[in-house]
Write a structure and sequence with these properties.
By secondary structure, the chain is an alpha+beta fold. Helix content is 49%, strand content 19%.
Length: 422
């Protein structure tokens, strides 16, 4: 009995679908379904093809099964997206609208680690004499990883909610499909809605201030969201987001998100946490210290830093005191000053802003602070202590070299300022 290579068949079906050979793609997907191996994704693909072939009633049935299958396998976000599509097919069918909401409101995501292998019903085995089908271990692990990714956003929007609250938020979501290559967000344009990735991958990029070139910041996939900068700050896109594949998204408008966060403050708190982490990642991506780091390296680095806030006028570090930490400015401005050895007056050496760093001398040279740094405005900084810095330096010795060069330059600048004053 030959083994049915489901992965290969799916790949073939996708190629036919991409070339517009819909009947051939549907035929292959049907073969997978007849073998008892149609997962929710296959059912959804079949429904999409049937829609394009004008078979809406049959497509509706496939969408129903896909929605329920996604729920059984723990993919609540995908089930929600399919539910929205299903309802949009027949907006006037009240029975269908009610059915979809009832199915989704009875959500019970399957616990990670308890995903069962797919089994073929006995009657299917009898009719498929050439098929020997099983769910390989790698498929189970892949499914578990996908569920973990989606749980990031599920825990944010859905887990704390009861049936009525879930129904309310569900009504605010809009299903969006985006072809590969399209820019969903453009840096600088207006936009304050938030997008949740249901399926596909996007690339996030931002213009480098110094060169004007676009720098890739991250790749995001199912379970991630983007657009929160415009929501939290000024209604403008602070990065460009491009579809690396065909995308399936859920969109939440600002007005609807405001209503959600007013009723459920915990949602805003979690979103704010994601937003702050994204801000820090962007900061590290453009900082002279860490601009060469990969996305994964930046994520690890964020864990080594702690946050501190200062009010305008506060002294962050004082000249002459012992120091065992370095600071990276997240937001706000500082003034760097030193005591002129000739007249004991305070001399301004520099003003620093977001992305700049200070306190490196104490870490590298193990000496007292060589200057005083005060907050000119409300200030947020990321702080890394000596132990964490030493770990970082072992992994990235180039940082030590860069800091050595920075120290030399700052010493030269200090001498120059003193001479100019004299």
């Amino acid at each position: 009995m030959a083994k049915l290579d489901v992965k290969k068949l799916k790949s073939q079906a996708e190629k036919y679908r991409g070339k517009g050979k819909l009947e051939k793609a549907l035929e292959i997907y049907q073969e997978i379904e007849d073998a008892g191996q149609a997962d929710a994704k296959v059912l959804q693909r079949m429904a999409e093809i049937l829609i394009r072939l004008g078979e809406e009633e049959e497509a509706s049935q496939k969408y129903r099964r896909a929605m329920k299958k996604y729920l059984e396998d723990g993919f609540l976000i995908r089930a929600v997206a399919v539910g929205k599509i299903l309802q949009e097919l027949a907006p006037d069918d009240q029975d269908l609208q009610k059915e979809v909401q009832e199915v989704l409101s009875r959500r019970h995501p399957k616990p990670i680690g308890k995903i069962q292998p797919v089994k073929i019903p006995a009657d299917k085995l009898e009719t498929q004499q050439t098929a020997e089908v099983s769910a390989p271990e790698e498929r189970k692990e892949e499914a578990e990883e996908e569920i973990r990714a989606e749980r990031k956003i599920e825990s944010l929007l859905f887990e704390p909610l009861g049936e009525e609250e879930f129904s309310q938020i569900y009504q605010m979501l809009r299903s969006v499909k985006v072809p590969k290559g399209v820019k969903i967000c453009r840096e600088g344009e207006e936009g304050d809605s938030i997008f949740i990735i249901v399926d596909g991958e996007v690339e996030v990029s931002k213009t480098e201030p110094e060169t004007g070139e676009e720098k890739v910041l991250a790749r995001l996939g199912p379970g991630d969201f983007f657009g929160e900068f415009g929501y939290f700050i000024d209604g403008r896109r602070h990065a460009s987001v491009t579809a690396l594949s065909d995308l399936e998204l859920l969109e939440i408008a600002k007005a609807d998100m405001d209503e959600i966060t007013q009723q459920y403050p915990q949602v805003k708190e979690v979103m704010l946490k994601f937003y702050k982490e994204r801000v820090l990642d962007n900061l590290l991506a453009f900082s002279p210290l860490t601009k060469g780091f990969s996305q994964e390296e930046r994520k690890k680095l964020i864990e080594k830093f702690k946050f501190q806030e200062y009010q305008a006028g506060e002294v962050v570090v004082a000249e002459g005191e012992e120091g065992d930490a370095m600071f990276l400015i997240k937001s706000g401005k500082t003034e760097v000053t030193t005591i002129d050895p000739r007249d004991k007056r305070r001399l301004t050496l520099a003003r620093l802003g977001p992305g700049d760093f200070f306190g490196e001398v104490s870490l590298i040279k193990n000496k007292p602070r060589t200057a005083t740094v005060s907050a000119l405005t409300p200030l947020e900084v990321m702080v890394i202590d000596r132990a964490s810095f030493q770990e970082l330096a072992q992994e990235h010795p180039e940082i030590v070299n860069l800091l050595e060069q920075t120290i030399e330059k700052r010493v030269e600048d200090t001498i120059k300022r003193i001479r100019e004053k004299g």
